[in-house]
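Quick entry, no commentary yet.
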Amino acid sequence: MKVLVAALAGLLFGLGLILSGMVFPAKVQGFLDLAGAWDPSLALVMAAAIAVGLPIFALARRRGVACAGVPAQARGIDRRLVGGSLLFGIGWGLAGLCPGPALVVLGLGDPKAVGFIVAMLAGMGLYELLERRAG
């Protein structure tokens, strides 16, 4: 049953990304181009995502565990979080994709997504390597 729910959630997420235009790098870059021809339509998508997510996060905080049984952990804002957020934002702005939409674009058969996903996996691997060395 969990697999079916996960598959349906993934399908719904992917369809939402396609319908919202977040799988089109030009649309994302238009949203991020505040000094040029700014396209504010993705702000509505983000607002809707926040509206859906807030009650779920509040429920998880009260329960102490997320729906998948993972402990809900609140951590403060530190240099690592800010640095990771900056790297994520820079990558999103340059490529016009973030991990979720990149997987959808790959599933749609766009070969440009392959390079993004290879770079993403390389970055994740580098992070793991550095964490092991530091730990």
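second:
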Amino acid sequence: MNLQESGEMYLETILVLSQKKNEVRSIDICEEMGFSKPSISRAIHLLEDGGYLNIDNGGFITLTGLGKEIAEKIYERHKVLTALFVGLGVDEPTASEDACRIEHVISDKTFKAIKKHMKEHGLK
């Protein structure tokens, strides 16, 4: 399965939810993302089939090693890009929204350069 932006968003959402609470279910993802239960269910099962997450008999969702690796990568990009945009004077909601779009398409090379620049200039 070639992971699309939407798949990355689901994995990132599961990661963030799992940091807030011990157990994540489909309904939690519905509430967080604002999508319908059927849409979430379809996506979750595709991600499970792709080896990105597991669903136990109780309906609890956990990321696999691969799923967690991707989710952490995307979430790091989100945090760093949001901080960069806020540092440039963009308001937090707009910065976060823009980071959410860019985090899925920015190259590893460019992202690495942004992190280096921020570190060299004492930006967090």
